[in-house]
Structure formats: structure tokens, C-alpha cells
Amino acid sequence: MAEQRQIAFTHKEVSEALVRYYGLEEGLWGLYIEFGISGANIGTDPANPDNILPAAIVPIVKIGVQRFDKPNSLTVDASSIKRLEPKEKSSRARTQKTKSPTKK
User: Fold this and answer.
1) What is the largest CA-CA distance in the chain?
2) What is the pTM of this model?
3) C-alpha angle 86/91/92, rounded to 5°?
4) What is the dihedral of CA 59, 63, 69, 70, to 10 degrees?
5) Is residue 95 classed exposed, middle or buried when 0-12, 13-18 and 19+ CB atoms within 10 A define those classes?
6) I need a surface site. Which of 63, 73, 83, 100 has the fewest CB within 10 A?
7) How many CA atoms lie within 13 A of 59 on its CB side?
């Protein structure tokens, strides 16, 4: 059998996994993606390096979930998601919840 090289998810599956990971228990939550934008001149033909074109570069900056008021094709209802067995949360999740403002 060939080695699996790619696993794809729907928007709802990603939303559900993030809702489950963060332990959200109520509300409609959907996929959130933040894009950046930049530009550059790029060559499209290695045989003719002087032929360049302006191009947009659109990186994905952040991926997360956001709360929605109405269900749609991106959302899952947190109250209907089956919970996994409790595990110790990652150090990142603990750090985000316990950060205190820097004193000056």
C-alpha cells in the first residue's frame, strides 16, 4: 500500500477539531482564517529571466475559530461535539490563559 502523503479536512471538520481542542462547550463556532498580502516581481519563464510580472503573495497568517450568531457552512455547535477524554492541556494553552499584564 502506498504511503499516505496528504490528509484533507472540510471547514467544519477543522472547526470541530479546534472547538474540541480548546474545550469550548457552547455557541456556534466557525473557521477563521487571517490572510496577509504582499507583492513582488516574479519571473515566470526560466528561459527568459528578463520577463518579470508583478504578483500578489497572500500568506495565511492565522487559523482559528470565531463565534457566529447563525449557523452556516463553516460553523459547528459546540454543545453537540462529543468530548474527548480529559488530557493535560498543552503548555501553550496554559500560558495563554494564565498570562498577566507586564508590570512597569
Assistant:
1) 60
2) 0.66
3) 105
4) 80
5) exposed
6) 100
7) 5
* Cβ neighbours for 35, distance < 8 A, ≥ 6 positions apart: 58, 59, 60, 61
Beta strand residue intervals within 1-104, DSSP E: 28-35, 38-43, 52-57, 60-68, 75-77
Query: What is the per-residue pLDDT across 32-73, written as a single tens digit (0 to 9) for each?
Result: 999 999 999 999 888 998 999 999 999 999 999 999 999 999
Where does the pLDDT of residue 82 fall: very low under 50, low under 70, confident under 90, or very high at 90 and above? confident
Q: CB-based contacts of 18: which residues, under 8 Å, 6+ apart? A: 29, 31, 64, 65
- As a dihedral over the C-alpha atoms of residue 42, residue 45, residue 47, residue 51, rounded to 10 degrees, the angle is -60
Domain ranges of the chain: 11-83
| Identity of residue 27 | G
Neighbouring residues of 44: CB distance < 8 A, sequence distance ≥ 6 = 51, 52, 53
